[in-house]
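<goal> How does this chain fold?
<body> The protein record starts here
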Amino acid sequence: ELPVLQDGTPDTWECLAGGEQSDAPPRVAPVQPVSEERIAPAPTVSLDEVLGMARAAGSIDISADAPLMEAGLSSMGVIRLREALQRTQPSGVALSSTLVFEHPTARLLAAALADDAGSAPAVPTLTRAAGGAEPGRDAQHVAVLSTSARLPSGVFGQLWSALASATDLVGEVPSERWREPGPSQPLLARRLRHGGFVRDAQLFDAGAFGISPAEAIGMDPQQRLLLEHAYASLRAGGRERRTLHESVTAVCLGMTNGDFMLLVATARVPASAYAVTGATLSIAAGRVSYALGLHGPCTTYDTSCSSALTAAHAATRLLQRDECSASVLAAVSLTLLPASSASLAVAGMTSALGRCHTFDARADGYARAEACGALSLESSRATHKAAAGAATAVAVVTALHLDGAAVRHDGRSASLTAPNGTAQRGVVVAALVDAAVGAGELEQMEAHGTGTALGDPVEAASIVAVTCAAQRPLSIGGAKANCGHAEPAAGLAGLLKLATVVLHGAAAANAQLRALNPNLGGVHGGRHALHAQLACARATASWWSGVSSFGYSGTIAHAVLRASAQLSGRRARAPPLALARRAVSWMHRAHPFAALHVPCPADETIAVLECFRSAANSALHA
């Protein structure tokens, strides 16, 4: 059921669910603008009263200036505190569901309620430095030439089909990843049961990059995937290895996961002289430059979930300032061990339902996922020059551009990992200013949308606050509902989704949207749509869209993508990359019958390498 306004029309966040599909534009509910007149003066709630309510909501002892969630107030406690504060307000005055995230301490809450700031978050403005170039117009545009990626369940070439049909790409942990016994606590076991996993991650063509079999075994599988997809994206954009050698091509990489380093530390990977370089994050980007002979800037960015867009911000600046001739933007995330998933489960960050229920009432955390992808980027000047000099018009240069990007930090929020709506609004505005585009010109927004009960409403309120003056419908989606949260590669997955849907002229469905998150209630101010089925979108000469990525480290990023109606040119492209992949396992595999590894006999007369014991009713019996 949809919330209904007084005039009988659905509320701002409209689920376009049910009914037959048609070619008509998607329905978007008219929205009543928020009145700036106060219905009644809000009573002042004293600091002592706020402290008393906070202590009662979480059964904690807290000081006036300590962030409430950092002091121990849980998500449910935040809801109870808001409800207690709501009861102090006159009839008709609704406090924002994200109130505690906007004002994270008791003192700030009391001040906000005294100033009647609890229900209308301010939209930050950004002024350009005097004499500085106007971003997005005076700087060069950055063209997205080509992509190469691998997403959960083997999807990339069929990404559009998966998005159009709202396909769920998340499933149970494959047996080939790990078979370790799960935790005894049922809730933790449920949080560890599902994920989005890349198929055949153990396959690699070492010879294609001049890597010996011994070194390949000592390499993190993430490095192997990066080599393949970084080169494949550059090649698809018209750059063969002979033209890449000694070119000033940059490598900007988003990467966080260090599972392979743990495998090396616990001797679960065969001892090797290559383990030092194979398990180091900084080497991952350097290996791409080394293998292809690149001389451009080369950096690995680790800002947790915002790593990919932080790398995108760096790649954009390098190209705009002519510090490199081209750039490959890449990101990767593989889960090789259950240990990191167990830590996230204990912290309550992952979903017991095993999915990212983005903006849905079932939101209870996120589902971990894997991904690897790369984008080949060039400045607009280099793109036109290459297209003009192409001998044969074979490949179409995409009409996609990265027009702007911004990176910021949450600052002093409700806790170290809690979102900050004010900072989120600021980073979106900064990216729009960098792209020299107004918020009202956006057609689509790819939300971070992890599927948390309070994190999603904070982001929703930020989007609405920035785009409330939009003159056209703004479609808001989330790829995580399809393929889970790829953590450091999440921003790249969002860019890939936007590139796919805008080139198809559509707004993809939210694969998990069944009923709206109740904490979205009270979010008003613009024309926004959350689609529960595929919808056509209005085609314009220049189609701007934005993608957000918020790291739980507090580093947040936003990028603005533009799709042009006119292609920017044609250029020659090398034949598709052909690889002869072979299995290169990243750890010793026990025999499938072995239930328990036991010490070998001490009798030197018996030649035994390893000993196992298996119960009669175990897998051996089956």
